[in-house]
Amino acid sequence: MAYEPIWTKEPDKLSKFELVKLEKDGLDVIRTIIEKYALEGYDSIPVDDLDLFKWAGVYQQKPKNGHFMMRVRINSGIMTSAQARTLADISRLYGRELVDITTRQAIQFHWLTVENFPDIFKRLDAAGLYSFEACGDCPRTIVGNPLAGIDKDELLDTKALVDEVNSFFMLNRDFSNLPRKLKMSISANPYNNAHAEINDLAFTPAIKEINGEEVIGFHVMVGGGLSAKPHLAQKLDIFVRPEEVLKVATGVATIFRDYGYREKRHHARLKFLMADWGAEKFKDKLVELIGELPARGEDKTIGWQAAYFYGVQPQPQQGLNYVGLNVPVGRLNADELTQLADLADAYGDGHIRTTMSQNAILSGVPDDKVDDLLAAPLLKRLTPAPKPFISRTVACTGNEFCSLALVETKKRAVAIAEFLDERLALEENVRIHIIGCPNACGQKQIADIGLQGALVKTPEGMVEAFDIAIGGTLGGGAQGPAAKFAQPLKGRVKADEVAGVLEQLLLFYKSERTADEGFHAF
Ligand code: SF4
């Protein structure tokens, strides 16, 4: 029986977009795109339906003249070489050869037109890939440990769990109309590889003795998220066995769907409900829905490595290695992605992995093939040993394509990192994140130095500038740093002066820091 929404009992308390969603489920737009708009063209698309395109995984790109960006879900950031070739082909055919790795391990294309979508959906489906619900008010790409299955530290391989939860939620009409997006992470890596605290729902590694047996499972955090009003997720007092992960995820999604706020878009994320309810009330409601769960056990998160995995690293499988590569600000071209797929087949286990730091990993490389892989020409640019600043620089899409952006981000991020790499040597790696607007897709709040695009008035008119915040970090359990968001500094710096200002700031830090001070950098 189809799910009957309870929030429609008070339609006067729904935002304008909620009323649009009541008229047409976001998932219906996929069929309309294929059967109507792809044939009749961009000008035939009504505005309300353009907003629903997000459920197909696409947004209009700047300047909203018929071009779109598309996001493709990569669960846990793990794809096969064949899937990577499909993505490279789509980019080559329709996306002007650009491929971006996002901060949620997804792949993003630009320059697509509505006429391209049916063929792209077909190609993705044939490869077992989907853009559906990569955007929209629904459960999004599930991020995970990109090392799942090749991680000497993880408590268990979470890949199958992520796939199970993904299969349940994707295209599931019981959950295709949430108040806003629902971002989930599932990882059993002790170094917080999936950035638990900034997800709406995060499963983190834990153990608990149950009936005299030590059980490996998860703790649960709920209500994290960034944007203009960032919140850290709160821990629930429950322990979850692996076979109960889907049940808990379904319970949390149900609470969000039925009790989440729908009056104002900017106040609709799960973090606001969680902040109002608190962890205890949220847990009580969850238990009411899905039944009792054991109380928390022992937390096994012991640090945060900020999703950086550079160089040749041994896998638990004897004689095999993974190789972490730098993809500057997450941007590749189609040929580079094809070459990565070729290298994965020639030297590795045929897989490419994407990280939340916008980088890539090749896995399953035998000891005797490592040197040949490292000599591949592609690894001159996508190097496993990048210079310090470019190695830790993250950037969102910015005004090259994003209609919300106030400034250019990616090219500027590379220029700033190269400037600092030429002029500064520090004992630690400093993570710099650059975003084009308060929406924080580039996660500036968790950076050592976060730059947020803005405009500033000058005698020559309005020019691009940045607000600077410092000292953000995510948590590393009892032994690691406590999570905290970057704190804003006073003032606003013109974009063409920001590299010099950062140099001065870091020189000051270098000379004045005390022995126990430091960025929580990795
Ligand atoms: Fe666009 Fe803002 Fe997100 Fe950057 S942070 S991609 S500018 S919405």
TrEMBL record:
Q: Where is the Nitrite/sulphite reductase 4Fe-4S domain?
A: 135-288, 392-522
**Which stretch is the leader sequence?**
none
- Keyword Ribonucleoprotein listed: no
* UniProt xrefs under SUPFAM superfamilies: Nitrite and sulphite reductase 4Fe-4S domain-like, Nitrite/Sulfite reductase N-terminal domain-like
Q: Which keywords has UniProt assigned to this entry? A: 4Fe-4S, Heme, Iron, Iron-sulfur, Metal-binding, Oxidoreductase
Q: Where is the Nitrite/Sulfite reductase ferredoxin-like domain?
A: 60-127, 314-377
**GO MF assignments:** 4 iron, 4 sulfur cluster binding; heme binding; metal ion binding; oxidoreductase activity
Q: Which family does it belong to?
A: Belongs to the nitrite and sulfite reductase 4Fe-4S domain family.
Q: What is this protein called?
A: Nitrite/sulfite reductase
Q: What is the originating organism of this protein?
A: Paenibacillus apii
Instruction: Specify the taxonomic lineage.
Output: Bacteria, Bacillati, Bacillota, Bacilli, Bacillales
